[in-house]
Amino acid sequence: MRGQGRKESLSDSRDLDGSYDQLTGHPPGPTKKALKQRFLKLLPCCGPQALPSVSENSVEDEFELSTACHRPEGLEQLQEQTKFTRKELQVLYRGFKNECPSGIVNEENFKQIYSQFFPQGDSSTYAAFLFNAFDTNHDGSVSFEDFVAGLSVILRGTVDDRLNWAFNLYDLNKDGCITKEEMLDIMKSIYDMMGKYTYPALREEAPREHVESFFQKMDRNKDGVVTIEEFIESCQKDENIMRSMQLFDNVI
Amino acid sequence: MAAGVAAWLPFARAAAIGWMPVANCPMPLAPADKNKRQDELIILNVSGRRFQTWRTTLERYPDTLLGSTEKEFFFNEDTKEYFFDRDPEVFRCVLNFYRTGKLHYPRYECISAYDDELAFYGILPEIIGDCCYEEYKDRKRENAERLMDDNDSENNQESMPSLSFRQTMWRAFENPHTSTLALVFYYVTGFFIAVSVITNVVETVPCGTVPGSKELPCGERYSVAFFCLDTACVMIFTVEYLLRLFAAPSRYRFIRSVMSIIDVVAIMPYYIGLVMTNNEDVSGAFVTLRVFRVFRIFKFSRHSQGLRILGYTLKSCASELGFLLFSLTMAIIIFATVMFYAEKGSSASKFTSIPASFWYTIVTMTTLGYGDMVPKTIAGKIFGSICSLSGVLVIALPVPVIVSNFSRIYHQNQRADKRRAQKKARLARIRVAKTGSSNAYLHSKRNGLLNEALELTGTPEEEQMGKTTSLIESQHHHLLHCLEKTTGLSYLVDDPLLSVRTSTIKNHEFIDEQMFEQNCMESSMQNYPSTRSPSLSSHPSLTTTCCSRRSKKTTHLPNSNLPATRLRSMQELSTIHIQGSEQPSLTTSRSSLNLKADDGLRPNCKTSQITTAIISIPTPPALTPEGESRPAPASPGPNTNIPSIASNVVKVSAL
After folding, report:
1. Which residues form the signal peptide (chain B) (predicted)?
2. b/e sequence B634-653, b meaning 16+ C-beta within 10 Å
């Protein structure tokens, strides 16, 4: 009885009121994405690998995801593109493949993996931001190349590269500048990872205050946004930040 | 943290770059990776099958054997691999756990073997994945029940000599096979239950007419006879109930139990009838009470296992039965309402009210169809047919659940009975095997001493003596021997637990070590006690040719002149081999059990000579074993021994 395997079991009567489908556990009726994908499948030019996004919903999509196996380019190419050694790439790929046998990570998976490191808090928002930062071509999935490219910048890049990458992470809409709202979102997501049980207890205004202090430090011309130049300049002046950037030298 | 995710830790640490620019305080130092060795392949050799994996794979779970430094204990320097002398099949599952983070339970594997392996590798079974956890738990529960069953029956069968009279009685009641009296009681009560039930039934049968009146039921015609029968039955039941009440370990619990209530209900009507007079007012009520006599039939459940299983099934399927009842009630009400309103229009309709329609609905849904109430309108007929169709469905759905429950419990019971029956045969076979191994100890003990003796004299002919024992065996025997020396007793092969009395394998005894020690002191010979001590018990059964009957033998006081003669006994060569009348030597017994008597002749002489040599008693003839080969004994002691030995069974020693 497949229905029993899902979180929503027969123990309540939600099914009767039409809120979900007994068999698949999803709201009844085809979702928009599923419809779109079925339509796309009919078109001869789109193979399964070209599907833009993998919906989490219907079982059909899961099948498609598993058959769409993405293989990275050769080891030599990756060695050229990134600054990792051959052995390091092997170790990274083994870990990557273990968790994502299909060769690509989608956002859901990404969030799940990241949440395992932060059991107490809710890291899904921050993981979503990270996902967007790693997913450089914005196709909704992170392949091994994307993954390794991002890691290469963070772990083996220059300090400037790293700061660039961090800026890219904060700039949610990728328009070249960080607004207070974007920063607030980021800050909230970081504080969310801590969870509810902290000492001292988390105050409502803490993220906002933190954002204010950040902007005070970073925003030179006080125009309410932080551009990339301001960001890099301010960070280079800050001893703490410079020193913490060195932490990434020995991660792998 | 899941296994595979450990490999993503570098990524998680890299992702922390997002926190750095916003942090207000400096970051702590990162831990240094001291021995930054490359990930290497390690080889795990499990009973010859080689598994290879990365070291980091195993280190994902540092609190298990393979993940911690405990595995270094199994490292084989020569082959540079980790060798485990365990089951390779189960190891496959264990290693997959490290690789994938999920522990699976293979269905073909025995549950206790699997548990043992998991315990060895330090893995908690609780982390078995959801896919296999249910199967694992079911099997484990089944196994536990089975072992508990066995233990229970074992405990029941052990003789507990210290039972009080009350406890014996209770046991007799609960398990009629414990004694003949209990069995008799069991059958007598069963018989009387049957008689009582038949009486109740026959009482109501019309029994021919008495002239001048209408047909009477037998009960009224032969009322005296029936009354006597009833009295007899009730007396038996009352006695039985009172006895049970007396014997019950917890009277309060017994009174509350189902069977006791049935007993009481079964015999109450009689006593109430005795007490009440022929008062017209209450006789109506009294007649109702007589109905309760039929409950006597439930007393049969003590006699029938099937009935008990049925009762237990019904109890355990209470929820299914409840659901059946509930759904039937719902359907009855619905259809009765519909039929009532459908038939309302027709004249002279039997469907006078909804409760009146209940009867029609029930009869239709259970497909009985008496036909006493029939719909006449078309609408009524349509709904009536729908009613009968749905009735079949509603009843057919919960029934298989109940049936499968009954089947499972019934088979479980059958298996339990079968196991109990097989247990006896199994235990007997195990005993036989065990006694074989204790024989080995006795043999080697004898042989060991012989060898010592031989060594002392330097006689080259040893090969006859010893069975070669492995190092482990000899160490084990040395251990047992040390224990004997410590306690001052020695092993009797005839161990009551092994019920050797009934087995035909062996019948050997050893001399009581205590007597030996005494003799040792007196004869000042440490290891060679010189007397034959009385054996402890006589074995009635002469078993095989290599065993002989032993009988009680009186003690001979140690005498420095006579130690040699005792050497036989001293050497605890219990197997005094007596074959017919011409059994020359006790020392034949020294030879292995499997040797025939004739083989032992030579060793005999040898030993006697040895004896002589050791004890430095000048007269070899005195030391030769009794029998025809023996020359005139030097001392009276052996002489007196001879006839006794020749005629009696030598009882060497016993523990």
Report:
1. 1-16
2. bbebbbebbeebbebbbbbb
